[in-house]
Amino acid sequence: MTTEVLVVGAGPVGLTLAVDLGRRGVGCTLVEKKAAPEFLPKMERCNARTMEIFRRMGLVDRIRAAGLDRHVPMDVYIALAMNEPPLLRLPYPSVAEAQAQIAACNDGSMPREPYQLISQYTLEPLLKAIAGDLPSVDVRYGHEFVSLAQDADGVTATVRDPDGRESTIRARYLVGCDGGASPVRKQLGIQLRGEGNLLRFHQALYYAPDLFDRIPIGPGPGKGRHYHIADSQATFLIMQDSTKHWTLHAVVEKPEEMAAQFEKTIGVPMRYEMLYVGEWKQNLLLADRYGAGRVFLAGDSVHLVIPTGGLGMNTGVGDAIDLSWKLYGTLRGWGGPELLSSYEIERRQVGDRNVGASRYASLGRRKWRAQFRPNIRDHTSDGQAARDSLARVADVEQRKTNEMIGAELGYRYVGSPLVWDEPGGPEHLFREYVPTTWPGARLPHVWLREGCSVHDVIGDGFTLLRLGRTRADTSGLERAMRARQAPFSVLTIDEPAPRDVYGYDLLLLRPDLHVVWRGQQPPPDPEQIAALATGWSA
Ligand SMILES: Cc1cc2nc3c(=O)[nH]c(=O)nc-3n(C[C@H](O)[C@H](O)[C@H](O)COP(=O)(O)OP(=O)(O)OC[C@H]3O[C@@H](n4cnc5c(N)ncnc54)[C@H](O)[C@@H]3O)c2cc1C
């Protein structure tokens, strides 16, 4: 069989890529070795940028409906157990509260969408169903990628079906979204480098239907999302999207210990069932390359981070969405050679920075956990001093994990062949997001009226934004863009707020809302900008 794009792996990244290719009408086959999505715990938090991306894909309402109730607080606690007074509470807004905060702010500093807690085992079947409904997408579970060979025109992959029979799929491009062990990456001979196997955790999934309703248990912490237990085993408890399921992570020797660990964490007898126990390892790894020839890699196949900062799947969704429109443009003929070669340049730097952000966050957690003393539970002045000291350090250090808005929204593609080179540029900050339209950055969200953002009125192609009632003659740039045959439109916005935040009268935006070029006057050489935007600058 033949297809335009063969996607290997139906984790959240491969599924997002398949859905986005499908909604652009690209022929795509998705092969997944598992027979069906599994009910296994992994990620649970889509960050703000991922939710903005899902909004542009038309998925945001379905994802919110399937995820955690919008009124449940997202607080993070540090405690000795769930039935004891918390040592520290870090309050974070529920989705409903965050939406109200976003609605009240129009300085570009907030995302269009807040985060959403949705467990990976809920998200994957939802995305699978959406992909399966798209006419140009062929979703094949139970099909394992075995090997590949590529030539000048395409890639031939050997795939094993559920009966063990091997057949070939011919594709113009192949994308390995096949996770940390990535057979596709290994076939290409690409290495992951960095720090592997830093710490080994056991993780268990529990059905504990009464736990959420009984919180706070006695003087214990209130309702929240993460409960870090101040012990010597780095134990933490995570609420899943139903509020009836919970995961516990801890450094223990044997899987059987995870039942007692849960009971100790809860602190009081409670009805529960342990549904799964497994192991996972902390890694901080980045691939040397994000592909070779007609084969690309995305998600955990190229970057592995310590997941508690939420930069694992979320970084992978960013990869998928960067690659999707570039594959589309190349396959439809308007994209030049730089379009696909820019993928690695743009996304590997984000992967590198996010591995760094994850290291920074995990060092913070290690720092406060190093304050643990065996006497921390003692009702003595020494015990109190141990509790106070841990809480004081955690108040600074734990925030590094939970407050990553700069890493989430503030990434900018530096040195990309698709982006106009304005020398300099703001620093990349993990913790802080400062709105900017510097070429390569994501366009900040600004409200036009209640419930309608600039993001919402920008289409799926390239967009020339005309702001501040400019009278500039942009016909040269418009002609140059149209001559490239890429999807392109002009959008004039007279409201003052976007002009105030963006600081420029004219902005050329890519399909993924990143800025190609900005100016107060039309560019002197519009053909050059149009060539650059569409990957023909070489
Ligand atoms: C405990 C924990 C908590 C986490 N929390 C978060 C979080 O809150 N936020 C966040 O962003 N990230 C989080 N992560 C990380 C997140 O789960 C991963 O980054 C994410 O799953 C990566 O998605 P992926 O699609 O790249 O890879 P995967 O989810 O690993 O999917 C790869 C898919 O490829 C398939 N596959 C492999 N080999 C083949 C083959 N030969 N043929 C066909 N198919 C194949 C696999 O079966 C699998 O379905 C967490 C991870 C863990 C372990």
Q: Quick gist of this model?
A:
The protein is α+β, with helices and mostly antiparallel strands and 538 residues long. Helix content is 32%, strand content 23%. The site of flavin-adenine dinucleotide (FAD) has 32 residues, from helix 1, strand 2, strand 8 and helix 9.
Question: Please, could you describe this protein's structure?
Answer:
- This protein has about 550 residues and is of the alpha+beta class.
- Helix 1 runs parallel beside helix 5, helix 1 packs parallel to helix 9 (about 315-330) and helix 14 crosses helix 16.
- The model has no long low-confidence stretch (mean pLDDT about 95).
- Strands 1, 2, 7, 8, 9, 10, 18 and 19 form an eight-stranded mixed β-sheet that branches. A seven-stranded mixed β-sheet has the order 5-4-13-14-15-12-16, with helices on both faces.
- The protein is globular, with a radius of gyration of 24 Å.
- Helices cover about 30% and strands about 25% of the residues.
- Flavin-adenine dinucleotide (FAD) binds near residues 10, 33, 43, 177 and 280.
